[in-house]
Design a protein that fits this description.
With 134 residues, the protein is an all-alpha fold. The chain is 78% helix and 0% strand. It has helices spanning 5-17, 25-47, 52-62, 64-82, 86-107, 114-118, 120-130. Helix 2 crosses helix 5 (86-107). 27% of the residues are buried.
Length: 134
C-alpha cells in the first residue's frame, strides 16, 4: 500500500495529539460495582420467577473482558498503593466484589419487584452503557 507522506504525517500528528486512555482505579471499581449488582439482581429476579440468570449469563459473556480488566486494575492499584503481594491484591479485588454484592443485597434487593425484574434486560443494557472499557 502506497500512503502519501502527508497522510502519514497527519495520522502521526493525530495519534500524538490523542491522549492515551487507561482505565482509572475509580472507573475500574465502578465497573466492578455494575458486575456485582448485575450478579445479585439476576439472583433476586430468579427467586421471583424471572429468568435473571439466563439474561445475566449472556450479558456477562459479552462484557467478560471488561470485568477481567477492571478486576486486574483494582488488583494493580491495591498492590501498588498498599504494597502487598499479587495474591493479596487478588484477594482485595475479590473482597471488593463481595462487598459490592452485599451492598446490593442491603440497599436494592429489598425493593426488587416483578416490575424491576421484568425490566432486567434494560438494566443490563444500562450497566453495559456505563462500563468503561480500556
Amino acid at each position: 500500500m502506497n500512503v502519501p507522506p502527508r497522510a502519514l504525517a497527519l495520522a502521526a500528528a493525530l495519534i500524538a495529539a490523542s491522549p492515551a486512555f487507561a482505565m482509572t482505579e475509580t472507573q475500574a471499581a465502578a465497573n466492578v460495582m455494575y458486575f456485582a449488582f448485575a450478579t445479585q439482581e439476576s439472583e433476586v429476579c430468579e427467586k421471583l420467577g424471572y429468568p435473571g440468570r439466563a439474561a445475566f449469563r449472556g450479558w456477562e459473556q459479552e462484557n467478560a473482558a471488561v470485568f477481567v480488566a477492571s478486576m486486574r486494575r483494582v488488583e494493580d492499584h491495591a498492590a501498588d498503593t498498599l504494597k502487598i503481594s499479587r495474591d493479596e491484591a487478588r484477594q482485595t479485588s475479590a473482597a471488593l466484589f463481595d462487598r459490592l454484592k452485599g451492598r446490593y443485597d442491603r440497599e436494592f434487593a429489598p425493593n426488587a419487584s416483578a416490575k424491576s425484574c421484568g425490566r432486567f434486560g434494560e438494566t443490563l443494557r444500562l450497566y453495559a452503557s456505563k462500563l468503561v472499557r480500556s
